[in-house]
Please model this.
Amino acid sequence: MRSLEAGGIGTFIMNVYRSIDRSQIQFDFAITNGGMGIFGPEIEKMGGRIFFISEKGNRTKLDGLYQMYNLYKICRKTKYDVVHSHYYYGNAYFLLCAKLAGVKKLVSHCHTAKTQPARLLTRTFDKISRPILLNVGTDFLGCANAATIYLYGEKAFRTGKAKTLYNGIDYDLWNVNNYDILALRETYGLKDEKIVIFVGRMETPKNPLYALQVMKDVHAHYPHVKMFFVGMGSYDAAIDDYLSENQMGEYVQRMPPDSNIRELQAISDVMIAPSLREGLSIAFIEAQKMNTFIVTSDLVPDEIDMGLCTFLSLDNPEEWTRCIIDRFNDPVHLPITKHYDDFNVKNTVKSLLQVYFGDTI
Model:
């Protein structure tokens, strides 16, 4: 995997890792980018080892070769039962290294569905890599049907060679009934304002500046509102500039990715997610489990809808404003009606162990 930060892939893996029986199964982590991040200390506390496989952490033209060679050496030395790769088409090459090192069970996992046209170089790499991946791997997973089809192709999905394994969260932790909402709002200095939340990496796929554009318009029509803007990334400077230029600092609060998301979701009315692409966002599952409505783009797979999502076109930001304000004025909390069992991490773990070991554990 790329890093130990609180992105969707890392959160999925940690949800599984916290839930498995670690007296029988242990995870090690091969990381291509960054340091210990948010999850590193917790991994080591639970007995996992972390290997940084980039050459001295540098990103060079040869770095991919260093990563592959280092992974090969680790697998050769440790004799793993399973290697599970979360690197899109890079899975082909990492799993090939693991196979050459003697690993028998080789699991590829896709966590996104591309909805934007790819560059020619990317399309060429994808075209070359897919047949390698399908021949090297033993099991092929995607977090949503669209993600499964994107990485492995419609034929592999249709025949059952590639399968969808939904992301899961701990339902006992993500339970709004665990919280005294009035006391929690007071802790965060809130009175009776409506709350909009954005959670995600501040990168192009999450479209954070669009979220701020909508929030600016929402505030113009409904001043009694505040926003939690949670996450960090390469857009940080642009976001700070936008907030400053538009004098939004009084009602938009930037927060780091290690904030207490459960508390923030518990006191939020609407989550805005104008994503350009998603796999099956764990943040969406978490929000709905905390009874938070979601307004998101129609580029997001509708499989994520547990009954609390509204899907809108990015071509009409005024419609986003109207939808959010409508939710403020009619805050009926509907029951979750879809995918309830699918997104429970207990079922995710059960399915994943079946992939890893069949009926032997």
Q: What stands out?
A: The chain has two domains: 8-168+344-357, 176-329. The longest helix spans residues 120-136. Residues 30 and 183 are 42 Å apart (CA to CA). The chain has 14 helices and twelve strands.
